[in-house]
Amino acid sequence: MPDVDFDDTPDEAAYRARVRDLLAEHAADLVHLDAGEEAGDAAEQEQALRRTQRVLADAGLVGVAWAAEHGGQAGSLAQQAIVGQELARARVPALINHIGLGMCGPTVVAHGTPEQHERYLARLLRADDVWCQLFSEPASGSDLAALRTTAVRDGEDWVVNGQKVWTTLAHVADFGILLTRTDPGKPKHAGLTMFVVDMHAPGVTVRPLRQMGGQSDFNEVFFDDVRIPDSERLGEPGEGWRVALTTLLNERVAVGGGGNDLGLSVESLARLAAAKLPGLTPERRVLARQAIGRAAVAALGNRYTGYRRLTAISQGGLPGPEASAGKLAGTAASRLVSDAGVRLLGDDAVFAVGTGDDGTGEDGAGRWQRNQAWLPGIAIAGGTDEVLRNIIGERVLGLPPEPREDKHRPFDAGSRA
Predict the structure, then answer these.
(1) Is the domain 258-396 a CATH 2.30.29.30 member?
(2) Cβ contact 124:259 at 8 Å
């Protein structure tokens, strides 16, 4: 096998320099926060994050790998990765519309009509509209196809009733992609239909859920006789599962499957280690070095494997089941990084939340603790670890599938018995 060259090509180096120049040029108009940090009034922060994405989009740094016809830059995934690296280097937080960019947008591109492309995509890229993904329900998270939210045809509209939960960004979203059951007489995977839903429509109620990290990124969403025009359907009636697979495969690339850091980077850990290791006792220093080493190996291994996956996609491939392995490895690596950071902080992990700095000159001593509390939710988002292991076993390793007695049975068979 030839050696892998992780250095930029001359073209990539020139592109990286251009990105740095653009970020420096627009620095005064961008939000600069540590990952996971919240500051100021929530409404003001939302508007600042929308403005940040708008500035970046106008500078050509959002949707880099999207086709020009959809408002993107027609660049490569390597260029998209470079932009992500430079945004992290400049301490620009994750784009507020990351759900729209990574999951909803690609679904609309793949299954939407030309009218939907024109209506939604440019505004999505600029965060004029923020999007969310309405999939999981209280009784059907890991078994998504068992969802019970219904959509019933009524003339040119569909009337939706039901509940979704764990919906990231629903509290600030303008639109969402909504998976519903439209034919309960068919097997559970066959009776689903996907729609674009206006999150401000009558009958839509959003209730934020407080997380143990203190933030409220997740929500429960209720639909009470919400009317959705048939023109907002994505794909044909009954093809919702096929449409949803597009979303899920892109989601697993977006959430760690592309080698991106989830939360704090291994470079942040290295800076923290340089500041904290000299002050530890010899015994604690040995344990801390072991934790840092494990975290660094896992994080860098996941990062470069993700780059290989992005390279394959950029050469014409599609996101496949191997993205599940990347997401699984990405969340595990991020937990190791976060745990090692908290270990380095020692007693300060308890007593210094939200005060001072962490010894590296970076604001917010509580960022490591907040990140550690945030990551268990990411291990569930985009498929739990257990679901991803099943996918890897069946679709990558070719192991026998688990028994699924209800796979071919009409969904409403139980209620008719």
Answers:
(1) no
(2) no
